[in-house]
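Chapter summary example: a protein plus magnesium ion.
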Amino acid sequence: MSPSSAPLLRVRGLARRFGRRTVFEQVSFDLARGEIVSLVGPSGCGKSTLLRAIAGLHGHAEGSVLLEQQLQRGPSDRIGVIFQEPRLLPWLSVADNIAFAAGPRQGHDPRVDTLLAEVGLSGVRDALPKQLSGGMAQRVALARGLFAEPDLLLLDEPFSAVDAITRSRLQRVLLALAHAHGTTILLVTHDLDEALHLSDRVLLLSPPGDDLPGRIAREIHVDAPRPRNLRDPAMDALRDTLLDGIASSPI
Ligand SMILES: Nc1ncnc2c1ncn2[C@@H]1O[C@H](COP(=O)(O)OP(=O)(O)OP(=O)(O)O)[C@@H](O)[C@H]1O
Ligand SMILES: [Mg+2]
């Protein structure tokens, strides 16, 4: 395979065990450069654990994670992570939070203003996190996640704590940012409509049963053009496929 056709991310045989309990095993999939892929599955099936394993956080998982054919052995600034809550440092300004990867007070970095404009927050560069709404704080977290210009951004239910209107706005911001920066996205979400709205592909992680570890049980391709119409009958069929997959899971 030539380097240009190789996937950006290649996950092979990934497994995570806590003591004698296996959360998931034999997880293998690729992400092409620029692809947006969602990971769905019932609560507790191991989505966050899988995301952390790909990010190289919290110890060693079995299997391999290759980024452009390079084996990852721990956290990398080429892989950014955004969590459900913004996790901003309360004593630093918005600008200093965004540029934190460059050092503690680097908010004057010119890339900060570009990112603030992209997430629609130019007016709050000197504000402290406590002065922001939840949706604004999550937009700052998005800007911080992109500051290091990662090839891959992993997002763990990033919009679940905001209202429906803000959520829809943040989804649009994420799509625009991914497009503008050429960032590949792996997004964990509970919301099948969010997955169908945003993704090129959706992976369904099945939960571990009594003797059965979690695995990628289903993969669907979402070929509909963007902007997507979730009322499109083709979307209903994809939603049904995902729901069937969840219903036939062992839990
Ligand atoms: N550090 C740990 N030690 C022991 N068990 C853990 C640890 N981290 C996660 N687990 C277990 O792994 C399983 C999967 O947890 P995880 O948080 O990945 O699920 P999830 O799919 O993200 O759930 P949710 O949708 O509720 O966020 C759970 O049973 C959890 O208790
Ligand atoms: Mg989780």
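Key point: Residues 39 and 188 are 5 Å apart (CA to CA).
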